[in-house]
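(Fold this chain)
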Amino acid sequence: MEKVVTGNYAVSWGARLSRVQVIAAYPITPQTSIIELLANFCADGELDARFIKVESEHSAMAACIGASATGARAFTATSGQGLLLMHELIHWAAGARLPIVMGTVNRAVAPGWSVWTEQNDTLSQRDTGWLQYYCEANQEVLDTVIQAYKVAERVLLPVMVILDAFVLSHTSEAVDIPDQDRVDDFLPPYRPELKLDVNDPHAFGPIVTPEHYMEMRYKMQKAMEEAVSVAQEVDEEFGEVFGRHYGLVEPYRLEGAEVALVTSGTITSTSREVIDELREQGVRVGLLKVRLFRPFPAAAVRQALAGIPKVAVIDRNISFGHGGIFAQEIKSALYNNPSTGSGHRVDGAHRPPLFSFITGLGGRDVTPKTIKEVINTTLAHDAPPKEILWIGVKK
């Protein structure tokens, strides 16, 4: 079935098709319509789920943690300040190894007060133990919610499925909504080995002494490392069943490129159009879209950027005092690039100059003109003239 839906509704349909059993959420712009549609599904009997109305985002995550701990498939959604209010329990969900999925609409963090898009809200949670997918289009949003549950329930870690505020959340696109039977075959019911059960009592989450705590964190990291291959396998399986797959990263026209743009989210779509135009003019530029951010797919990034003379990263975020967050991750991945087979130190040719651009903060439009300025600046310099290159700042 094909429907024209917003990005938010694509999240809702993904949760419905995943047969979520408990939904706990608190409304916040621009996420609200996700839970509104899910509430309608529950009220109309189209989704057999318990919808819990709570007084805050902190409570929403607490309810999802409790539900997931009993073995229920739990879902929530939030944005911006709501995600920040959840922060304490974001850690708890990951540390408790609960496969919760959360639809997260990127919203700029206040003050100044803003409802428009920026990635700092989700990226401020990057060290909590949650997987993070950044989506480009509404179809990808729906498909990624379904994939997220399958990945989460295999590695026992929670997942954020992330989309840009308004640019995607409130923009309507034609989306293929898969048959429920096919989704049921792809995503079977969640049957955890360990759960809260009144008929088989156990205690979970007690105080942990230094003798054991470090091993718990070691296992979380090993699960994150495993999640890279699991996410790839699930995406490939999804492609075999539904005819669509996305990869952990997606190269676009990188063959013979002099410059590779690295993007995420909806900036990717604009960049594709610019790259096609410039390629017709003989400008050798390509693109690498990063879809999975946590765990960071370092090997895939290194492979895609191998041999590219210059890399330009476009960040819709900033780590104050350092720079663009995706740029930091790319630099880290390239720095420890092992040479093939030899194990010897990599020479400089494998670590191209990396230009770190920041633009689009607070929902400011990232237009084809913006992308061209990024490309032209990169082409004009042998090395970055500054650590941070701001595009579109009004001076």
